[in-house]
Amino acid sequence: MSKKLPTRQEDYSLWYNELVKRAGLAENSAVRGCMVIKPYGYAIWEKMQRQLDDMFKRTGHENAYFPLFVPKSLFEAEEKNAEGFAKECAVVTHYRLQTDPDRPGKLRVDPNAKLEEELVVRPTSEAIIWSTYKNWVQSYRDLPLLINQWANVVRWEMRTRLFLRTAEFLWQEGHTAHATAEEAVAETRQMLDVYAEFAEEHMALPVVKGVKTPNERFAGAEDTYCIEALMQDGKALQAGTSHFLGQNFAKAFDVQFANKEGVREYVWGTSWGVSTRLMGALVMAHSDDEGLVLPPKLAPIQVVIIPIYKTGELDALLERIKPIQMGLIARGISVKLDARDTERPGFKFAEWELKGVPVRLAIGARDLDAGMVEVVRRDTKEKMSLPLADIVASVDQLLTDIQTNIYERAKNFRATHTTRVDSYDEFKRMLDEEPGFLLAHYDGTSETEERIKEETKATVRCLPLNEADEEGICMVTGKPSPRRAYFARAY
Fold this sequence. Notes:
There is one protein chain. Strands 3-9-10-16-13-12-11-24-27-23-22 form an 11-stranded mixed sheet, sandwiched between helices. The mean pLDDT is 97. The chain is globular, with a radius of gyration of 26 Å. By secondary structure, the chain is an alpha+beta fold. The protein is 34% helix and 28% strand. It catalyses: tRNA(Pro) + L-proline + ATP = L-prolyl-tRNA(Pro) + AMP + diphosphate. Its EC number is 6.1.1.15.
C-alpha cells in the first residue's frame, strides 16, 4: 500500500481529496474542473440511484429524458432563473470545426458555422422541460404531471473539488405540474421527506429539514426546502433541495390547463434534485483516518473474505470457504472473495479497510477445523471469533448493527456540535473554536444575513421545519426575531 492518508486533524481538505482518489472513487480528468467517476465510486452512485429511483416511482413519478442544450431565448424566458445561473453557463456558439490553414494537423472553429441562436448547456432543465410541458398539458385531466430525469448538468465552476463542486456533475431532477398551489406545496414537502428518508435510512446521515431564506432560495422559486447535514469538520453540506415554483415557470412558458369548469388557469410547479454531491457527504460524514467507512446499504461490497493459507493449501481452502460465500450471497449480501496469490493478507486487510468494506472475514484451515471464523467490523475495528455454524446469520445481523451504529455515531456528532448562541461575539467565537450548527436569532432581513455572511463566512442553512418557534432578539441588530435559524459555514 502507499503511504498513510493524511489525518483529518492535520488537513481535513487534503484527507478528503486523497481518500476519494486512493479509495478508487474518482479522479481529476483531462477536462479542467471535471472528474472521472471510477468503477468503485460509480457502484456506490448506482446503489444510491437505484434506491432513490424506487422511492420516486413509489410516489407516482415517471422517468423521461430532455435535451442537454437549451436555446438561449428559452433559457432567458424566466428572468430570475436566467439571472441566477447566467454566470455559470457554458454556451455553444458554433456547430463545426475545420482544419486550420495556418497550423497543419490542427483544427479551428469554422467561422462560417456560427449558430443563429446560441445554445446553453443545461445548468438545470426548467426551461427546456416547461417549454415541453406547454404541449403536454391541455386539461385538468393531464394533471398532475410527475416527471423525473437522471442526467448530467454543467455549471462552470472555477474552484472545484471532487464530488462536492465540479463543472459537470450527475444528478436527478424532478419537475412536476399541478392544478392547485396546495397540491404543488404538498409535492414539494413530500419529496423533501423522500430525500430525508433516503439520507437517514440508507446513507446513515442525520439531516435537518428546513426552508431556505430568500437570499438562499433557488432562482425562480417561491420557496426552497432543503435537507442540511453536518460533516466531521463542523461544516454543513446541503444534501438535497425541493422547490415550490409557484406559477413562475407556467407563466413564463404559457403552460395553462382548462379546469373542471372549463376556465383556463396556469399550472403550479415544483422541482427537486440531489446530485453526486451526496458521494462527498458519504465520505466526509463517516470516514476515518484509515479510509472509507461505508454504510452497508450503500457499500458495493458488504463482506470481503480473505483466505489465510500456506503454499499449496489455497485450492483446498477455497473449497471449504465456498459454502460460506454462497450462503451469504443467498441472503442477498454482496461478497468479494479476495483469493489473489500476489498479495499478503496484511496488504489485503489495509486495502479493503481503505475501501470501507463493512465486514471482513479472515478464514484459515485451522479456524475452520475449530469451527470458528475471524470477523472484523469496519466501523469500530472490533475483531471477534464467531461460530462457523451460525456465520451467515451472524454476518447478516452484523451488517444491520453496523448500519445503525454509523447513523447513531453521526447523530451523536451532530448533537455535540449543535449549539444555541445568543450573542454575536459568542457566535463568531464558536465558528472558529467549535464549528458546527449554531442555532441563533437574527432579524430575518437580507441585510443582516449578508452582513453575517461577509463578516463570518457563515450562512443561514435553513429555518427548521420541525422545531418549535421561539421568540428572541437578533444577535446582530437587537431587533425582534420570531425563531432561531441554523447557521454554519458550508461546502
